[in-house]
Amino acid sequence: MTLRRFTPTPLAGLALLALLAGAAPAAAQTDAFPSRAIRLVVGFTAGGPTDVPARFLADKLSAALGVPVVVENKPGAGSMLAIRDVLSKPRDGYTLLACSYLDPVNTVLYKNPGYKLSDIAPVTLIARYDYAIGISKSLPVKTFKELVDYTKAHPNEVNYGHLGVGSFQNMVAKQLEKLTGIKMTAIPYKGAADAMQEIVAGRNHLYVGPPLVVMPLYEGGKVDIIAVTGTERLKSAPNVPTLEESGVPLVAFAWLGICAGAGTPQPVLDLLNSKIVPIVKSPEYRALVERSGSVAASSTIPEFQAVIEKSAADAAPIIEEFGLKME
Fold first, then answer.
1. Which key words are in the record (predicted)?
2. HSE on the CB side for 311, CA within 13 Å?
3. 210, 192 Cβ separation under 8 angstroms
């Protein structure tokens, strides 16, 4: 093999200068991040289980980065309006998403959600939460076993609320029907607050909801909670058993995180992770989410990527089995 010495020519020198000139602004932009306000888009209404921790993080992250972090609520279409908005903007770290398990699940629930799983760039987990099974006081039951017995004796007379076909409530209810042999009637609602008010009124009978939504009504004596979906009892409701303790082999939980659009520079993602994780680990944040029945949870970027992929993989067979696929 012969080695040839490379002798720079004027043309080669100009090309090299052009290449370096093109790379410099991109590098400078990454190094300067952030230099202006950051949007944090939430796909649910204000005051909900996603919005509350998102606003806390936005305030603390603003202080950590030295720029405003502005929360913007874009509810609708099972949180798809929010993620579509984020993905439509430049992938530079200035538009972030308060993401949830719904974002990967929607990629297998809908035939054309408008984005792919690979479009989601994880930053970090911020919380995970189990669900509470709230029931109306109009039902003559106090335990999950009593609910099963009553529903078997009154098939299709017990209504359960959900937030749309393929929603967490819908999928959990379908699994409970299969595991226990009961038959319930599904009633769709626009939001968790609407569903819970109908439970208080006795027109809806059951709702699988985040503790932030169910617990205040339970503590006020307006609804009962007969089980929780996690592996452990809630600290805020230590007398309420898990489904497993009630004889039902089902564990289900949801998560919240901070995401960006795929293609966001890795140094930007790393910086955001390094600033958000300490906030999530702070006693103040932990106390905030625990009051709402959630658990503070942070992660590395690869760990969060694995959670996102598993969420879609776990939901796919359930959606297929119960025919929940949407257009």
1. Signal
2. 25
3. yes
Question: What homologous superfamily does CATH list for 132-228?
Answer: Periplasmic binding protein-like II (3.40.190.10)
**Is the pLDDT confidence value at 192 over 90?**
no
Instruction: Kindly give, in sequence order, each residue whose CB lies less than 8 Å from that of residue 60, ignoring residues fewer than 6 positions away.
Output: 279, 282, 285
Q: What is the pTM of this model?
A: 0.82
> What is the Cα–Cα distance from 184 to 189, expressed in whole angstroms?
16
For residue 49 the two structure tokens come to 């289980």
Q: What is the pLDDT of residue 163?
A: 83
Superfamily of domain 37-129+253-321: Bordetella uptake gene, domain 1 (3.40.190.150)
Q: Which residue has the tokens 């009124």?
A: 201
Distance in angstroms (rounded) separating the CA atoms of residues 17 and 10:
11
Q: According to the model, what pLDDT value does residue 17 have?
A: 37
Indicate if the pLDDT at residue 281 is higher than 70.
yes
